């Protein structure tokens, strides 16, 4: 058995988990999410762009051809009337809210901010997040480095950021998420170009930096207490509720340093080591799913190993 992690956070690597039908080939696997039934949704740059599997990796359905080549941010959010996917398309410059079967509910394009955007300075959104009141936050990670705030109906509220290294300034704000683990919700931004995380209030005021134990963080996934972060530089990081390191999963300090990365020869990829983690999610059983930024895709399931606590020595 191949395993990764340490202490109470050990996982068995499930090799060959995603069973794609012959008619579908992965492009870059950017996003991954799991729903209340345990089904797993993969967002990639091929066509169709959303591929759905059950927890055993059996193919269920696919859709989303309109996001071919532009598929990037991918966030499943439970709301009062059901679950929705918030996706970003970096080619079309859009954030789109969808039902779990691909019906469009809302679309947001370039913010009406001529002081930020023009014919040369493009809006290239990389991720979206949703606050408890339904407000939507969009990270422009590949265009102008700003965070844009909207109502749940898509009405513009505010923007903040701008290129730089100081508090509130950003370089490639690649991922964004609302942290509900504490008394007051906070907005986490993967300030990837600055090799750090910035934490903001929901109205955009800078609160603190997180700089330890992250290496080009891409996005976030929260469980009740933990925070899972795909570090593009070849590992998945798990933090506790105080944002202190629990462990790294599948760390490979050689992968991202190789010429041609992330698209390396297949002999360089190992099932228990990551090369370029881009998306991560955790199901209700504690199993972890990782999508990597590789031209023909790579999706890994890590099955949680439950340590025996009964005292009988059973394992």
UniProtKB/TrEMBL annotation:
InterPro entries: 6-blade_b-propeller_TolB-like, NHL_repeat. NHL repeats lie at residues 161-203. Gene3D superfamilies: TolB, C-terminal domain. The keyword Repeat applies. Coiled coil: none annotated. One of its GO terms (molecular function) is monooxygenase activity. This is Peptidylglycine monooxygenase. Keywords: Glycoprotein, Monooxygenase, Oxidoreductase, Repeat, Signal. PROSITE patterns: NHL. The keyword Oxidoreductase applies.
């Amino acid at each position: 058995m191949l395993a990764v992690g340490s202490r109470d956070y050990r996982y068995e690597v499930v090799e060959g988990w995603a069973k794609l039908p012959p008619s579908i080939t992965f492009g870059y696997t950017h996003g991954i999410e799991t729903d209340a039934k345990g089904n797993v949704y993969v967002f990639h740059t091929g066509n169709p762009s959303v591929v759905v599997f059950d927890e055993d990796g059996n193919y269920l359905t696919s859709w989303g051809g309109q996001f071919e080549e532009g598929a990037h941010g991918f966030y499943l959010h439970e709301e009062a009337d059901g679950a929705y996917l918030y996706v970003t398309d970096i080619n079309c410059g859009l954030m789109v809210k969808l039902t779990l079967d691909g019906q469009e509910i809302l679309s947001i394009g370039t913010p009406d901010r001529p002081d930020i955007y023009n014919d040369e300075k493009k809006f290239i959104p990389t991720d979206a997040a949703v606050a408890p009141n339904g407000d939507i936050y969009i990270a422009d990670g590949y265009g102008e480095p700003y965070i844009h705030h909207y109502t749940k109906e898509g009405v513009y509220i505010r923007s903040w950021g701008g290129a730089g290294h100081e508090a509130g300034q950003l370089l490639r704000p690649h991922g964004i998420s609302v942290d509900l683990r504490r008394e007051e919700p906070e907005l986490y931004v993967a300030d990837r170009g600055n090799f750090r995380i910035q934490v903001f209030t929901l109205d955009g005021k800078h609160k603190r930096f997180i700089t330890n134990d992250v290496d080009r963080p891409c996005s976030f996934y929260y469980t009740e207490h933990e925070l899972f972060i795909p570090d593009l530089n070849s590992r998945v990081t798990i933090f506790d509720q105080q944002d202190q390191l629990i462990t790294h999963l599948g760390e490979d300090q050689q992968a991202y340093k190789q010429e041609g990365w992330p698209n390396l020869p297949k002999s360089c990829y190992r099932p228990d080591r990551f090369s370029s983690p881009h998306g991560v999610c955790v199901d209700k059983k504690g199993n972890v799913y990782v999508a990597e930024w590789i031209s023909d895709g790579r999706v890994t399931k890590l099955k949680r190993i439950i340590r025996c606590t009964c005292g009988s020595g059973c394992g």
